[in-house]
Amino acid sequence: MKWLSSAPANLMVMGEHSVVAGYNAIAVAINQRLFIEWQTRDDDLIIIESELANHQTNLVEMSNHPKLQWVMQTLSYFKAELTTGLNITIKSEFKPTLGLGSSAAVLAAMLGGIQFYLKSNPSLTDNFKIGLSIIHAIQKRGSGTDLAVSLAGGMILFNPKPLQIKPIK
Questions:
Q1: Residue 97: pLDDT above 90?
Q2: What gap in Å lies between CA 112 and CA 34, rounded to an integer?
Q3: pTM recorded for the entire structure
Q4: Nearest-CA neighbor of 31 among 100, 126, 131, 109?
Q5: pLDDT given for residue 116 in this prediction
Q6: Is 7 exposed, middle or buried (0-12, 13-18, 19+ CB in 10 A)?
Q7: CA 105 to CA 149: how far, in whole Å?
Q8: Do strands 86-92 and 54-58 pair parallel, antiparallel, or not at all (unpaired)?
Q9: What is the number of domains present in the chain?
Q10: Domain limits for position 43
Q11: What is the pLDDT of residues 2-42, one digit of tens each?
Q12: Tell me, what CATH number does 145's domain have?
């Protein structure tokens, strides 16, 4: 089976620092995307190709790669539900060094792709909570505002406490 997932790059409009203290932030998705091409395999290998690095592991080992933490941590989160190996090819319309939320875009596209594979359709809030747990596993902190906008698209008002991801029209 083959499929594609994608997520937009994003920008913080305001509140980049205050959101960490629990205040609102505004973020916007932009028209540059990160794409992930997926294909199931007949074995247990996971083969990842991207501009940053190439990596091969398997469903049992799930070895990490320092340049593919967002990919591997997401796969590890869903490890118990993965039943086949995967070919994962990551392509981006923007460079990861530009400050456009590439990590959040990778995470959002990974979540979308895995959930398609699992035939799962979580709400935006539930998807965000899974992603935020992955962010905290990697970075130990972070509001997740960039993830929220890469998941939701458009422009959002993000309130971390209580959690609210609200589209701005």
A1: no
A2: 12
A3: 0.95
A4: 100
A5: 98
A6: buried
A7: 9
A8: unpaired
A9: 1
A10: 2-167
A11: 999 999 999 999 999 999 899 999 999 999 999 999 999 99
A12: 3.30.230.10
